[in-house]
């Protein structure tokens, strides 16, 4: 703790970015993250200035990553699973913990819809703030699959809590999520989806790496990522579910500030149900951000970058968002989510990654693998979506 006190005394002389670097290193030891893991030696301080300290996550065990906020933000760790329990520590953005079990709050918090907490070896963390993740190693490919047009590439999913990326140009020339001065080391996170179009051996480590990019909604940014945490998504994996079923339709129900749900039907038969996050009312217009009524979807893609023209827009700049189904042309999508675990409340049109992927495969139409994106017009092409509010 002497090291942290030293940093606090110096904080007025440090830039915000430098302060966050040192603070993250000093306080990251309570979790499984790679930001020091309790070792604040002079050598590690020097290394942290020059290069990220690589995390060592346990393989294929249930873990949780603090997914809310940004570098320097934190959430409390409680002694028991309820909001007024004594705090026994703090969890910082991107800290990774062993996920022992999910439990119901010991005392109901009437200001929250979700009453779930995650038990970790260090205490209890509110479940909305921690993403369920794993560290699953993959067998790297030395050559990428060949496409019909003769090019090479494949869709990949990130299978580690987070991994730092190797940039191919100066940081300031990338989109905001990379060039943001508060981001210490740009990284990608568990369940994000990207297009891999090149492969190499890292010039220093010798590890196989894939060069990743976004095909939809982003500037032509590219970056190298270790291939052993990039899972190949095969064409068979995106094959339609129940393509011959008649009268497919989706019902999204918003219960005011109550539980938000999505149900898939084939005729009158319910075939899938999940809790989701939906948009609330706009503060100025009073309209629902997730628009009510019957919708004729217009677009479907495997992965998309959520921003506006590559700029930080309305508080978000989110790469690698998987399994997108556009229900309105003005930017309303059903999609995967990795930046919160708050399903069942009003937040965005987001689903758990595994739920979003099932829904994406089930809705019509099928999408070509290589482009991973399709836009259409007219009725009867896709699976209709109805959004309603229950009182």
SSE layout and pairing:
Elements: H1 2-10, H2 16-27, H3 42-50, E1 63-66, E2 74-78, E3 87-92, E4 96-98, E5 101-104, E6 116-120, E7 123-126, E8 130-133, E9 154-158, E10 162-164, E11 166-167, H4 176-179, E12 187-189, E13 193-201, E14 208-213, E15 222-226, E16 230-233, E17 248-254, E18 260-266, E19 269-275, E20 293-295, E21 299-306, E22 318-328, E23 332-336, E24 350-351, H5 353-362, E25 373-375, E26 385-389
Parallel strand pairs: 17-26, 23-24
Antiparallel strand pairs: 1-4, 1-8, 2-3, 5-6, 6-7, 9-13, 9-16, 10-12, 11-15, 13-14, 14-15, 17-18, 18-19, 20-26, 21-22, 21-25, 22-23
Nutshell version of this structure?
This protein is mainly beta and 391 residues long. It has helices at 2-10, 16-27, 42-50, 176-179, 353-362, and strands at 63-66, 74-78, 87-92, 96-98, 101-104, 116-120, 123-126, 130-133, 154-158, 162-164, 166-167, 187-189, 193-201, 208-213, 222-226, 230-233, 248-254, 260-266, 269-275, 293-295, 299-306, 318-328, 332-336, 350-351, 373-375, 385-389. The strands form seven sheets. It has a six-stranded antiparallel β-sheet with strand order 11-15-14-13-9-16, with no helix packed on it.
How much of the sequence lies in strands comes to 25-35%
What is Rg? Answer: 22 Å
Number of strands: 26
Assembly annotation: single chain
Morphology: globular
* Contiguous runs where pLDDT drops below 50 for at least 5 residues: 1-30, 34-50
Span between termini: 52 Å
Number of helices, where a helix is a run of at least 4 consecutive DSSP H or I residues: 5
How much helical structure, as a percent, in the residues? Answer: 10-25%
CATH class assignment of the largest domain = Mainly Beta
CATH architecture of the largest domain: Beta Barrel
- For this structure, the CATH topology of the largest domain is L,D-transpeptidase catalytic domain-like
Total number of domains: 3
Spatial ordering of strands, largest sheet: 11-15-14-13-9-16
């Amino acid at each position: 703790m002497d090291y942290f006190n030293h940093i606090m005394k110096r904080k007025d002389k440090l830039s915000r970015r430098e302060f966050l670097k040192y603070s993250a290193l000093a306080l990251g030891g309570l979790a499984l993250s790679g930001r020091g893991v309790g070792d604040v030696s002079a050598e590690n301080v020097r290394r942290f200035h020059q290069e990220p300290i690589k995390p060592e996550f346990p393989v294929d065990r249930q873990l949780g990553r603090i997914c809310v906020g940004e570098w320097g933000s934190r959430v409390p760790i409680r002694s028991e699973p309820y909001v007024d329990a004594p705090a026994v520590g703090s969890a910082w953005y991107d800290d990774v913990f062993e996920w022992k079990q999910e439990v119901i709050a010991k005392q109901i918090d009437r200001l929250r819809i979700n009453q779930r907490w995650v038990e970790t070896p260090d205490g209890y963390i509110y479940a909305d703030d921690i993403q369920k993740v794993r560290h699953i190693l993959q067998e790297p490919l030395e050559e990428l699959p060949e496409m019909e047009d003769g090019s090479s590439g494949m869709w990949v999913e990130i299978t580690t809590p987070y991994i730092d990326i190797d940039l191919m140009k100066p940081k300031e020339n990338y989109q905001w999520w990379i060039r943001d001065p508060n981001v210490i080391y740009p990284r990608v996170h568990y369940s994000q989806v990207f297009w891999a179009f090149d492969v190499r051996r890292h010039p220093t480590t010798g590890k196989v790496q894939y060069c990743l990019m976004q095909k939809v909604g982003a500037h032509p940014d590219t970056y190298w990522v270790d291939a052993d945490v990039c899972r190949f998504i095969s064409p068979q994996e995106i094959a339609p579910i129940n393509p011959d079923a008649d009268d497919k339709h989706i019902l999204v129900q918003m219960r005011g500030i109550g539980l938000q749900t999505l149900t898939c039907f084939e005729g009158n038969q319910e075939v899938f149900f999940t809790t989701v996050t939906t948009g609330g009312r706009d503060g100025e217009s009073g309209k629902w951000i997730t628009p009510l009524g019957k919708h004729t979807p217009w677009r479907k893609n495997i992965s998309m970058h959520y921003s506006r023209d590559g700029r930080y827009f309305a508080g978000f700049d989110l790469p690698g968002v998987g399994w997108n189904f556009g229900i309105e042309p003005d930017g309303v999508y059903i999609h995967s989510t990795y930046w919160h675990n708050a399903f069942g409340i009003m937040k965005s049109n987001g689903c758990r990654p595994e739920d979003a992927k099932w829904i994406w495969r089930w809705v019509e139409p099928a999408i070509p693998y290589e482009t991973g994106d399709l836009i259409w017009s007219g009725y009867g092409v896709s699976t209709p979506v109805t959004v309603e509010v229950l009182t």
